[in-house]
Amino acid sequence: MKQPPPYPPLPTPQPPPSYTHLLLEPSQDTITTMLNHKCFAKKPRLCELVASYFTTSAEASDTCVVLLQSLAQARLDCRLLLHALHLPAEQSIPVLDALELFIHLPNPFDTIRDRLSAIHHHQATVHNILRRARRKLARRARLLAAGKQVAGWCAMLASGALAALALALAVHCFVGVVAGPLLLSGVPLLPKKKSRAKDMGLSGQLDTATKGAYILNADFDTVERLVARLIDEIEHEKGLIAFCLDRREERWALIEVVKQLRKSEWGFRQQAEELMEHLCLCLLTINRARMLVFREISAHLASHRG
């Protein structure tokens, strides 16, 4: 009696790749050292705002790495499903065995789903705090500019008044010599140049950090949407498989489910590829934004030392 051909072996599971090479730049240790500078001791609120931005962006980077690992695991699990879908239709037993094995695998994104939502909410909060602080500093800068303009007008009026007084009291020039300094003493002082430079430095730091937080929040809007879509796709496939396994004795159910799963295979791969590309782009954006804020602060500290 002729023996049936052996069943093709199931693919051997492999551990997901490590993404430890995607280092955070600049590191949190570097940021901590920078924020311990004596310059920040006099500005605790600014230190708190900048620290919150760097902490949130570091958490976002860690979350992206975990998501990449979860995505790699989902792709490995998908190999098991693809193996079943490409078996000959006559080999229903190994197909059902592979489908049953796949449906009992945990969803790789279950452990990160809640964390992703919490991180995204925290990012939105930090961005709003930074934005309010930047607006407050901008209002202060406008008030200083208005004060400077008013002071200029007062100086012009005072100069005109002195000229008229000097003309009227020409015969009493020695009175003009004495009265001049007294009148000038009433002119409002202009904002100190050092104070204006300091505010410009603070504004630059807050502006860069706020822009970085905005971009990060927008990126995670997309990440959360892509992850949710991929989770729904995995759950949809498992729902089809459960339908098939409940009717394992009915051949039509297996044929129909395999047909549907083959159609969704391309969509899953496209979604997984899109998520991976966006996560890698998000990691690059995080590092680029962190470096911009770091350079802004470093330049301010260098000028402070000067």
UniProtKB/TrEMBL annotation:
Subcellular localization(s) per the UniProt record: Membrane
One Gene Ontology term, aspect cellular component: membrane
Keyword presence, Membrane: yes
NAD among keywords: no
Regions crossing the membrane: 141-163, 169-190
Keywords: Membrane, Transmembrane, Transmembrane helix
Principal localisation: membrane
Any single Pfam family the record assigns to this protein: DUF677
Family: Belongs to the UPF0496 family.
Name of this protein: Uncharacterized protein
Species assigned in the record: Amborella trichopoda
